[in-house]
Structures
1.
Amino acid sequence: MLSRLRHKHAGILISCTERKFFKIDAEWEFHSLIRILSGEMKIILAGESQTFVTGDTFLVPRKQMTTVIKRAKGGSPFSCILVRFRPEHLKKYFTKNKVKAKHAPAQRVRAYTRHPLLDSFFASLIPYFDLENKLPDELTALKINEILTILREIDDSVDCLLADYSVTDKIDLAVFMEKNFMHNMPLEKLAFLAGRSISTFNRDFRIIFQTTPQKWLITKRLELAHYQLAVEKKKPKEVYSDTGFKNFSHFSFCFKKHFGYSPTAFPGTKGSPEKN
C-alpha cells in the first residue's frame, strides 16, 4: 500500500499515511467523494463532526473549511480512494445530462450506505493504482462519469450540489466566522474564503467584533473547549484537536491562562493525548 498521496493533481487518487495520527485543517477545492479502505477519518465541519471507517463512502462539498483527522486502525494504516469532481468536468457532464433535483441540498458532508454500485465502482479502481503513471485522461473521464451516474441513481438531490458552479463572493463575515472558527487556518486563507483581501478582512473584522482576529479566535476556541469538557464530558485529547489547536501543550497553556485551571481539572478527565 502506498505511503503518500499518489498523483495529487489527478481526478482519481489513492491516499495512505503510515502515521497513527494525522491532522490537517483544509479547504476542499473540489467536490470530493471518498471511500475509506482502512483506518478511520474524522471530518469536522462548522461545529459538526462525523467519523468514517473502513467501507464508508461520503461526499465532501467544495469550498468547505474542515478539520480532517486520519487514524490507523486495527494494525492497518489509514488509506482511502478519493474522486475529485472538477467544475470543468461537471459542466461538461451536465450539458449532456439534465439536472433532476429542484432544491439545492445543504452544504454538508453526505454519507452513503453500502451499495453494490458503489462497491463495484471502487473495486474496479484498485488495480489501476499499481500503474507507474497516472490514469490516462480518457479513462479517468469515463470513470468519473460512471461514478456521477451512480451517485445520481442513489441520491436524488445530489444534482443541485454538483451542478452549482457559483464562485465565492464577499459573504457575511460574522456568520462565516461563527461557523468556522474551530478550523486552524492562516488568516490569509480565511480572508480568501470570506471573499476579502487580508487588509479588508482585518478591517471588517475589527468593525464587527471590536477586537483582532487572533484574540477572537483563541477566545472562541477556548469557550468551545470548555463547553465540550464541562457539558459534553469529552476527554481533553478529543477537545484540543476538535477546537482548532495544533497540539495539546499549546491548548493546555492557553486554557489555563484563560480559565485559571488546566483542561484535565474536570471530573473524569485525566492525562494528555497520544503523541502525534
2.
Amino acid sequence: MNKKLKNTILLFLILTICLFSLSGCYSERNIDHLAYVVALGFDVGTDNKLRLSFQISVPGGSGDNGSSSQSDSSVVNTIECSTFDSGVNLLNSYLSKESNLSHCKMIVFSEEFASNGISETLFTLMNKVEIRPDCNVLVSRCNAEYFLKNSEPVLEKLSARYYEIAPTSSEYTGFTQSVTLSEFFSDYNDTFQTCYAILGGINTSDTHNSDSSENAVEKDSSNKADETLIQGKTNIENMGLAIFSGDKLVGELNGIQTICHQIISNTLNSCIINIPNPFEENQTISLKVRPIKNTKNKVKLVNGSAYITSNINLEARILTMNENSKYLNTNEIQTLEKSINSYLTTQLYDYLYKISKDFNSDIDGFGKYVVQNFQTYEDWKNFNWLENFKNSFFEVSVNTTVKSGYILMES
C-alpha cells in the first residue's frame, strides 16, 4: 500500500469519527425534556394507600396556578397511587416531560401519614439515586398537598431556593432545626437515638393560637408551626420539631422546647428568649443567648435506669432596655443571671421529661453515653435503650454570664 493511499484512508477515518462525534442524539435527556420536581408531598390516600404530590418548577417563572395561591414559579400535581414509583410513572404519563427528582429540596409528610409509619417510604426515597441526601424532611400540621399548594416564596423567585433557605432560620432563632434526609435516615437506623423532622404548617388567621391563659413570657416561644400571630403574604411557617419513635410520629415540640433540644444536643447557634423581669412586675426581658461551651452530658446507670446530668454554660446579652434600666450594675446583673438560670432550668426539665415520659424518644442521643457501660454490642442490643429511655431521670445545671447591651455598655 503506497503512502498516498494510506493518507487517504487515514483522512477518511478522521472525517468519519468527527462526523459521528458532532451528530446529536434524539433520545438524549436534556432540560427541554425534563420536569424538575422541587418538593414531594405524602398524604394518606382515599382509594389507594398513598396520595402523592409533586411541586414542579416552571421554567421562566410562568405557570397555571388554578385556584391555589402558590407562586407562578411552580405548579403542584397530585396523584392517588399504591406506591411511590407507580406515582412517578403515572405523573410521567400525564406530563409532556419526564419528571426529574435531582432538584428536590423538601420532602413533606402530613401528620396523618407520618403517624401511620414511614419506613417503607423512607427506604424507597433513600434508594433513589436522583434524590439528593441533603434535601430537608418536614412534617406538616396540615395535609402535604395543601402545604405545597399554599407555599409562597415571597422573598425568593424560585421555589427550590425557597425550600433550601427556609430551614436555615434555625441558625438565628433556635425555633426549628434543619433536618436532611440523610440525617433523618441515619437517626432512624441508629440504636443510640431516635429521629425527628422539621415541623411546618400554613399560617392563617384560622390557625393562630389565641390561648389567653398563656402569660406574656410564654406567648412568643410556646407556639408551634402555624400558631403564631403573624399576618403577611408568606404562609409557610417552620417552628418546632416533629418527634418520632421508630418510624412513627409520636409528638411535637414548640419553639422553646426546640431551643432546649439544641442546647442539650450542642446544635444551638444563638436564639432570643423572654424571661420574667426580676425588677419590674408583669414585665419581660428579651435576651440573646448563645452557648460559650459545649453542654457536658453524662449518664450513669442506676438500678437499670439512666441518671443523666447536663452541665450548661451560656452567654446572654440584654436586648430590652430603657433610660431607667437597672441592668447595668454588678448586683442587678447577678440578679438577672439567677433569673435566667432559674427560667432555663425549669424549661429544660419540662423538655427532658416530655421527650422521655410522654414520647419515649431520645432525640438528643444520650444513648451514645449509655453504651459505654456495655462490653459487647449484643449486651447493648439486649438492653434496648430506645425502649428504656422512658425510665431515665435528669439533673440539669445552668450557668449564664450576662453581658449588658451592645451599644450602651459592655459589662
3.
Amino acid sequence: MGLTMLFDPEPKKRIEDFFNMREELKSFLQSLRKGKLIVVTGLRRYGKTSLILTGLNASGLDYAFLDCRLLPSGMISINDFLNLLEDELNKKSWAKKLLQGVEGVSIGSVGLRFRGGEKNLFLRILEKMEGKVLVLDEAQELRRTSYRLDHLLAYIYDHLNVKIVVSGSQVGLLYRFLRIQEPEAPLFGRPYLEVRLKRLEPQKAEEFLWKGFEQEGIKVNREVVEEAVSRFDGVIGWLTYFGYSYTRNKYSISKILEKASKLSLSELNHALSIYNVGRKRYLEVLKIVASANQLRWSGIKRALEAKEGKIPNNTLSNILKNLMDQGFLEKTNEEYRITDPILKTGILKYL
C-alpha cells in the first residue's frame, strides 16, 4: 500500500501517514491495552477519526466503526442503529463467520441482513464480538434515540469482553449522553480513559504544510504558509482542506477561506436547527461574540438586550452553555470566544 498524502481529505489509517500526534496516539494505544472504555474528544477537524483508525489498525484489533453522523435526523430508532451496524459489519471479513446462527441475522449471497425491530439483536451481536472493539464516532448523536444506549454500554462494560471507544466533537453533549459523572447513571463509577486532541502549535502547523507541499511536489512561498497557519490556527482538518484546495483545485487563499467559512456556517445552521424559533437568538449571540473577539457574560447580555430587549439571565446562560456543549464557544478566564477561526470568519462575513 502506497503512502497516503497528508492533504488527502480522507481520515488517515496508518502510522506512516499520521502526522505529529505521537503522544496522543501513544496514549490511545495504551488506553486500548489497559481500559474497556476510551473517550476521544476534540473539536471539529482536530483529527479524532484519523487517530482512532490509525491506533486501531496499529493495535491489530478487529473493530466495528460506527459513524453516528450517518444516522437520520430527528429521533433515531433501533432499526436506524441496526442498519448502521449492518452496513459496517458487511465490510468486515470476520463478521459472517462470527454471526452464523445468531437469531435475527440472516447470511446470504448479498451479505449480512438484520431483522428489523429486534431490540435485543444488538446485544446478541455484541456477545459474539469477543475481544473486538466497538467504536461510536460522534456518539453525542445517540442522545436522539429512546433506546437507552448508556444502559447497554454499562452492560457491555460489566459483562462482555468488548472494548468501547466513543468520540465526539461536541464534548459537552458527548458527556451529557454518557452521564459518567452522574451518580444515578448506569456508567457512573466505571473507570474510563480520555484522550483529548488539541490544535497544532504554529511550528507544527508550518511543518505539516511544508511536508504536504513536498509530497505534492509543489513549491510555495513562505508567505503562503505563514498566512495559512495564521488563518487556520492549527486546526489540522482546516490545514488539510487548505492544502488540498490549494494544490489540487488551484484556489487562492481568499477563495479557500470563503468556501471553508461557508461550509462551517452550513454545519452551524444544521446543528442549531434543533432550537427551532430560538435559533435566531443563538445566531445573535454568536455574532456578538465574534464581533468583539472575547466577551464576558455581562457584555454579551448588554449587547443582546440592545438588539432584542430584556433577556432573562437563565435564558442567556442556557444559550451559552448549549453553544459550549456543541463546541461553538469556549470560555477562558470568564471570557467567551468562537472556537473555530473559520467559523468566526463565516459569522462575521456571511451572517
4.
Amino acid sequence: MDSLPIFIRAHADVQLFSWDRQIEAATRFGVTLAQVEEIALERGILPARYQRNRQAISVSDQLTMFRSSVCVVGCGGLGCYVIEELARLGVGTIVVIDPDVFEEHNLNRQLFSTPANLGTAKVNAAASRIGEINPAVTLIPVQAAFSLENGASLLDGCQIVVDALDSIKVRLELAAVCTSKSIPLVHGAIAGWFGHVATQFPGDPTLKTIYQAWESGNGVEQHLGNPSFTPALVASLEVAEVCKILLGQGTPLRGRQLIIDLFSMEIQAVTLHNNDEEQE
C-alpha cells in the first residue's frame, strides 16, 4: 500500500492538492484532514484551497500558519469576522472564548448570527461554521467569560491573542494577562462609523495608553451602535496584523494606533509610545 506522502505527491497537480484528494487521503489512510494538510505542506505541496494565497504567502509560510495557535477573545461583531478570516487564511488552531449566546440584536452584524442560531452559544456556532468552511482547522470553543482569575490558563499554548471584546475593563485585564505571559495582543475596537486597531507586544503599555482616561463604564459603542461594515473592516485589519506577526513579516502597529473614520473616509496612524523606551 502506498504511504500517505507518496499518495499526496502522486495526486498533486502542479504542486496543488485538491480538496477531494484530501478527503480521499484521510479516509484511505485513517488520518485527520489536518494531518493530511500538514504532511502536504511539509513536502512543499499546497492544499488547493490556499492557491490564491501563494502570491503573498509562500508554502513554507502556509505551514507556519497551519502550525500556529491563535486565541480570539470575544465572538461578537469583531470576533466572528476574525475567526472566519483566520480559518480561511489557514491558521491551524483557533481558541475562541466567549460566554454568551446569540440574541436578536446581533443579527445586523455578527457573521455567525442567524435566526436559526438565536439562543445558541456563540462559541458553538463558531465551531460549527469553521467545521463547514475549513475542516482541517481545529477550533476550540470555550464558553466562559475572560477574567484576571482564569485568563492565564485560558491563554495557555496560544502564540497570539486577538481582542474582540466590548468591555474596556476586560480589555485591560486581557492586556495585563498577555503581558504576564509575554504574548502579543492585537487589539481592535468599533463604535458606529469609527474604529481603531493597535498591537501590544510584551512589555509595551499600549492598551494602558489608549485607555488612560477611562475610569469606569462601557465603551462608546453602547450608544453609537455598530453597523455591519465597521466590524468587518476592523476585524480584517486585526487578521492582517496576526498574519504579519506569525510570519515575522511586514511592519506591525507596534507603538501606533490606526484610527478609522468611515463617515469621513479618513484613516490615520498616531504614535502611542516609543518602542525602545523602558517599560514598567
